[in-house]
Amino acid sequence: NYRTVKIPSDQEIPEFVKEVFPGFYKSLFTKAYEREQKKVAFLEYAWNMGGCDPCSADPLTREELKQAGVFWLDSNAFNSAFITRLHIRYARNTFPEDLNFQATSNQENFQGRYIINHPYREQMQCSQAKQYKQSVRQRQEQEAQNLATLTNWKIEDIRRRINWIELTSDSWWNPFRN
């Protein structure tokens, strides 16, 4: 009885977000929630419990499924349960009715994911070091832009928190230094 949309996903974001993930996700959700005029259910996860690739955690056990209310599956079929996690903020003016669920044939897998790259930071003495470092800097800037777009965080604040890769070599004698 309410529209469902996927949570924004599959974006490269800066390394520091790992340390502030709860705040990141709250900001991401709030921005998406407001963009959708506070009238949707967000799909965060949908997966067949028979297996996953990649798995963010082990599939639920039969006992965990039972605790979640999956009482109708027999012992031979519990691996075919399809779990869906929705994220909703209820408000009287945007969700005046309780959610009504219905069975569907949709078995599309989905999980909200965010990509954190860790650049190589050790001393490099190969001919490709300068090019690699420049490509990492470009990627780090794109990650900052992605984060700002996902959360409405100020780009200047994001840039201050990024551990930018150094473009110059730390050895004065390195023949490949900038």
Walk me through this protein's architecture.
This protein has 178 residues and is an alpha/beta fold. It folds into two domains: 3-116, no CATH class; 118-178. 29% of the residues lie in helices and 15% in strands. The protein is built from four helices and six strands. It has helices at residues 21-35, 62-67, 129-151, 155-161, and strands at 3-6, 11-13, 40-48, 82-87, 110-111, 114-116. Strands 1, 3, 4 and 5 form a four-stranded mixed beta sheet that branches. It starts with a strand and ends in a 17-residue tail after the last helix. The model is unreliable at 173-178 (pLDDT under 50).
List the helices and strands and how they pair.
Layout: E1 3-6, E2 11-13, H1 21-35, E3 40-48, H2 62-67, E4 82-87, E5 110-111, E6 114-116, H3 129-151, H4 155-161
Parallel strand pairs: 1-3, 2-6
Antiparallel strand pairs: 3-4, 3-5
What would you say about this model in short?
The chain folds into 2 domains: 3-116, no CATH class; 118-178.
Class by helix and strand content?
A: alpha/beta
First-to-last CA distance:
60 Å
Average of per-residue pLDDT values: 87
Backbone CA Rg: 22 Å
> Which consecutive residue ranges, at least 5 long each, have pLDDT under 50?
173-178
**Shape annotation:** flat
Output the keywords.
single chain, 4 helices, four-stranded mixed β-sheet, alpha/beta, two-stranded parallel sheet, 178 residues
